[in-house]
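Researcher: Going back to the complex we discussed earlier. I've cleaned up the inputs and rechecked each line, so this should be the final set. Can you rerun the prediction on the complete assembly and write out the structure?
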Amino acid sequence: MTVSRPVVTRFAPSPTGYLHIGGARTALFNWLYARGRGGKFLLRIEDTDRARSTPEATEAILQGMRWLGLDWDGEPVSQFAGMDRHAEIARAMLENGSAYKCFSTADEIAAFREQAKAEGRSTLFLSPWRDADPASLPDRPHAIRLKAPRDGETVVRDAVQGDVTFGNAQLDDMVLLRSDGTPTYMLAVVVDDHDMGVTHVIRGDDHLTNAARQVQIYLAMGWDIPVFAHIPLIHGPDGKKLSKRHGAVGLHEYAAMGYPAAAMRNYLARLGWSHGDDELFDDAQARAWFDLNGIGKAPARLDFKKLEHVSGWHIARMEDAELLKEIAGFRAATGAPPLSEHQIARLRPVLDALKAKAKTLPALLDQAHFALIDRPIAVEEKAAAGLDIVSRGILKELTAAVQNASWERDELEAAAKQIGESHGLGLGKVAAPLRAALAGRSSTPSVFDMMLALGRDETLARLQDQAG
Ligand code: GLU
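Model: Rerun complete. Updated structure for the full complex:
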């Protein structure tokens, strides 16, 4: 097979109301393959099921793609909008003799099957119209069927599965255009992929049998067959086909759990594809490394522990601007309001300290609680226990001591130390009431990090609120 054309891949979801994690991985593979080769990545919405294809259902998919950071080229293509073109190709196939008009009614087909079953024959429908004399055809509604080869084999040359052979005896004369004039899915997919110039079809292996039928249409039209790569579906941690009982199956659920999109790209790329032993990588590496050879034949299993690990790695090495963007995406996914400028200004100075520890964005924001709240600070019960009369006194002394301090770590630390020593207390004991006053909690970032992030005025105000 020679494919010298520039690479064109596509993601062709049917709108189901959300972007499935398996669909997201399919999209990612197509995106990586195209982007790593200077090719195009197209998006086609397979919206021929009119009942399910609401604008909201389509938007949910686009939203998932945007969140995951998979940009597509051009406008999304609507499969439904191509109906006339699909019908035109069905007629072209009539013309070239690779298809025929079939006047059998649904009742006749059902009766055929019934009888075949009773006689123990194959129930694949054999239309009596396949070889009818074109001059003697009735003038009534009819389907257009592919005149599929009866003998021999149809081979799907698959970059993942190898050559997969289907006996033509097992493939019936599929309907291309229904008697109501609507094209079938099988026809629409081939016509669209051809018209969009798709060179590589990377999708779930639940479409492998469809590929055999699609190959027959390509051959009937004399069109170039794209490279197929059918990837094994994702399984749950127990090795069974992924379903809702395993937990989250929608990409939006992962967004809402606070895994950064960058980590999801890394994690999903590894779900079924590998590059040696590399587990942790960035987009540039993924683009450079991604190849169809690296896709495995065995289904990959979801592993939440691994996802946490990947997530933590990405958070730790993220630039502030990217991290803030991820946080914005996380908050949007949970319906939380965006962080205010004011909150972001307080958050920035502690980001580096927090990055290293947090595995997810909510874990990071939880540590950043002090920066996101305003006075009056509600003090949690556990932290309040540390605010006894002695501690309140210490806070008062500290307030006075740092009032005119230059707002630098060394000086703040020295002041706290000194006051602790004068009470015969270590820094840890002084830190407890400080945490309570500044964050209302007992688990916080370093107290000096908090003081520096909050600035002098806000720190003094919080201390004064709790000082005795
Ligand atoms: N619309 C199909 C699906 O969502 C994908 C078809 C294809 O990739 O060819 O499963």
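Model: Worth noting: The mean pLDDT is 96.
Researcher: Good, that matches what I expected from the previous run.
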